Amino acid sequence: MEFFTKARAIKLRSHNNKYLVADDDQKTIRQSRNSSSTKSRWIIELVEGGSSIRLKSCHGFYLTATSESFLLGMTGNKVIQSQPDSLKELPIEWTPKRVGPKVELRSFGGKCLRANGGPPPWRNSVTHDEPHMNSTLNWVLWDVEPIEVPENGSMKEYLSMMSTVSSVSDDLLSELGSPVSPRSNYNSPRPSFMEKNSHRFSINKAINLFENAKAVRLLSHHGKYLHADEDQESITQDRDGSSKTARWTVEFVPGADKVIRLRSYNNKYLTASNIPFLRGLSGRKVVLTVPHRLDSSVEWEPIHEGNKVKLRTRYGQFLRANNGLPHWRNSVTHDIPRRTSTQGWILWSVDILEILPKSTRPQEISNNETPSTKIQEQEQEQEQAQAKTQAQVKIVDGRTIYYKIADESGNIEDEVEEMCFTFRGNGVEDLSRQLEEEIGIEDLIVCSRNPLNGKLFPLMLQLPPASVVLHLIVVPADSKVGRDLERRGMVL
């Protein structure tokens, strides 16, 4: 309780490193990484004669525990914003309990405020519930961050003051995970001598990743690969790393040893265009092109950072993998990230798919020659060199696994989108472990559906050959259908 008696306003940060926010519809409660928004600020009201509190949002509504199920058949109940007739109503009261450096917030029914993870519709949702699995015990724990409020200021004055710091438009853009508006004021300090030399070292180290590579694939911060879309123009992200559209051929730029070009499966180049991705924002489109002259728009400078790289255009912007709501989700732009939460969006892991034979170096292409002829010549020379030297190549193995998550009774809604990821393990145990990490659910059962009677049966001994495309059903072990499978002895 001491967390709340010393502060007038707080922010609550979940185990997902996201903040509890009150949406503008004045009803929805969810999680967001944007800590600067007024929607993440909660005014504390102590309940007289007790150890409970009330939390009031920036809209003047209270954090409320309802008895309405979040999803039919599941145990979690909705948490909303509401304006009760009386402040003595129990659903707006929460009892804090300290757990180490964090707190639990228990509703009137004894359930805990819970920040959910996993795939939609669970992702970023907030319910009140009891965690039933070890992997979800920390989902009910919150970090409390006090906020300074003027001692003599009212709630209205405080929110008015905060609104001058964070405008509605920038707040909305941050919620979408988008680049900030060009109107934002961003000033970077002049780099020192040591910083300049460190930067040169990062470039030299990064270029070593590409100098012996004939083909690579790039994995974004979100666990998705850079793909050349089959419309032969768009660039996207996708979890399928085995597709030909995730393969990029590396070319070094003549006269610039530390600059590369990336060519897609259809012989088009990764290009930083001048076209705004969305009007009024700073991010610009990254597309596929075959320019008549190979200019700076198809040139990228790798910069090493940790075990990843940044790819910078010749004009100082970076290849950026976006996330958030459509149209940002899975899009790729070139931009400069200005928020702490999006700094990782310009970092890429490099997987080498094919090594360049030692006898072959990238051929120079003069600016007055069309690339298509030279590309064919390069490919023929490289294929001949490969046949002579019989160079060993390193290919990243893997198979694409498609899956859906069943509800308590083993049913799946038709509109639920099938998800996928690249699996590099050998057996059912490895697959179960990777699915637990992918979904965020512990103790699950990996099943397939019998095509004759439609019933679920668990995968137990071994996986089918890699040539067989797997479409799986994931069942939580503590669900009704999971307990039924165990009772019938179908789960080892």
Query: If strands are numbered along the chain, what order do they take across the biggest sheet?
Result: 26-25-29-27-28
Contiguous uncertain segments of 5+ residues: 152-201, 361-370, 386-396
Tell me, briefly, the overall form: globular
CATH class of the largest domain: Mainly Beta
Query: On the 0-100 scale, what is the average pLDDT?
Result: 77
CATH architecture of the largest domain: Trefoil
- The beta-strand count equals 29
CATH topology of the largest domain: Trefoil (Acidic Fibroblast Growth Factor, subunit A)
Strand proportion, as a percent range, falls in 25-35%
The rounded Rg comes to 27 Å
Q: Which structural class should the secondary elements be placed in?
A: alpha+beta
Major β-sheet, in short? 5 strands, mixed
Rounded to the nearest angstrom, the distance between the terminal CA atoms is 45 Å
Helix content: 10-25%
Domain unit count: 3
Q: What is the number of helices?
A: 7
